[in-house]
Amino acid sequence: MQSVEGKIVLVTGAAMGMGRLYAERAITEGAKAVVLWDLDGPALAATRDAIGKPGTQVHAYVVDVASLSDITTAASRVRSEVGNPDVVVNNAGIVRSKLFWEHDHTRDIAAVMDINVLALMHIAREFLPAMITNPSPARILNVASASGMLSVPQMSVYAGSKWAVIGWSDSVRLELLRAGHGHVRVTTLIPSYITTGMFAGARAPLLTPLMEPEDVVDRAWKAMKRGKPRLMMPWSVWLSGALRGVLPQPLWDVLADRVFRVYSSMDHFTGRGPKPGA
Question: Beta 87-90 vs 138-143: how paired, if at all?
Answer without folding.
Answer: parallel
